[in-house]
Write a structure and sequence with these properties.
The chain is α/β, with parallel strands linked by helices. It is built from 7 helices and 13 strands.
Length: 326
């Protein structure tokens, strides 16, 4: 029977209760910068500047470094935000309702008396109103400086993104997942996260082995006699097309289980411990226990911790044990 334990409280403090190198992989989605006030004084996401936000995140992952096995991996899904005139941010939309001015017109707030442009005021030293804050890459580079290996940027491509009424840029339809590690060599089961390859039913008959660089291995009577042998699966590519989903009882966006299942499968073995220091509604815990892993989550909001307990129990039932530790 697999177990899930959800620690309620500040991530940095509660991670101190997790033993050194006891976690095989970490899969998480931290709060966006400036997106939402969760009503807790210790929350991350309402810092004045992007640099302050990134520093707070990195402090959490400094503690994650200690609890993660030396051959472990870290998978971080992180979205971006646009700055607005008030110094706050809005996720993936502009500060003035999304339109940002008509094409070919000047923003008069940035023009001087002679009709030229002045340098706009910045938020926190570099971010201007309407700027894309660049949070994911600021975070990734800061983690590199702290010793993490930045192994890959994975694109979460959303076929059903949030609609935006923008007229001066494209609708945002992607986020990043960063794969990081403590060392250059780490546990990674590429076969467990492999994706379907090109199949015989794609009508390749008659093109022959020279065209495909392979051998004819179709069995008689299968309809594949003229098909070249191609493996059923291939190494997963770095763009993942996964639709946005919502958990009915959560009052905020959650990442879909289909998005993080490959991370859990590639980064751990059955019986390993999977950690999410920003547990939220418990998606990572649900995926972990469903696939025979144990789970440790940290959640600042007690209500969300109770919600994730319910969600994980509903997913695994009698085959798992879920505990909220306050």
């Amino acid at each position: 029977m697999n177990e899930a334990k959800i620690l309620v409280g500040d991530a940095v403090q509660r991670l101190k209760d997790v033993p050194d190198q006891s976690v095989r992989t970490v899969v998480t989605s931290p709060p966006y910068w400036g997106l939402r006030d969760y009503g807790n004084d210790d929350q991350i996401g309402l810092e004045e500047t992007p640099l302050d936000f990134v520093e707070k995140l990195c402090q959490v992952f400094d503690e994650v470094w200690r609890v993660l096995a030396d051959d472990g991996t870290l998978w971080v899904n992180l979205g971006d935000s646009y700055a607005n005139n008030g110094g706050k941010t809005q996720p993936q939309r502009d500060n003035n309702g999304g339109f940002g001015g008509s094409p070919g017109t000047r923003n008069q707030s940035y023009s001087n008396a002679s009709g030229g442009f002045e340098r706009p005021k910045t938020i926190g030293g570099s971010i201007k109103p309407k700027d894309l804050a660049g949070i994911p890459w600021r975070f990734a580079f800061a983690m590199q400086e702290r010793g993490w290996y930045l192994r890959q940027d994975i694109i979460w491509s959303k076929p059903n993104p949030m609609p935006e009424s923008v007229r001066d840029r494209c609708t945002k339809s992607h986020e990043y997942i960063f794969l990081m590690s403590k060392s250059p060599r780490y546990y990674f089961d590429s076969k467990a996260m492999a994706e379907p390859a090109i199949h015989a039913e794609e009508k390749r008959a008659g093109l022959g082995r020279l065209h495909y660089g392979g051998k004819r291995e179709g069995a008689p009577g299968t309809g594949q006699e003229n098909f070249v042998s191609i493996k059923e699966f291939r190494n997963r590519r770095s763009v993942w097309n996964v639709g946005v989903a919502r958990y009915a009882e959560a009052h905020f966006a959650v990442y879909p289980p289909e998005l993080i299942t490959p991370c859990v499968l590639a980064g751990s073995e059955p019986g390993d411990v999977v950690l999410d220091p920003f547990s939220g509604s418990g998606t990572t815990g649900e995926v972990a226990l469903t696939h025979g892993r144990d789970y440790v989550g940290v959640e600042l909001n007690p209500d969300y911790a109770e919600l994730s307990e319910k969600r994980i129990f509903e997913a695994v039932g009698m085959f798992g044990n879920v505990e909220v530790v306050k």
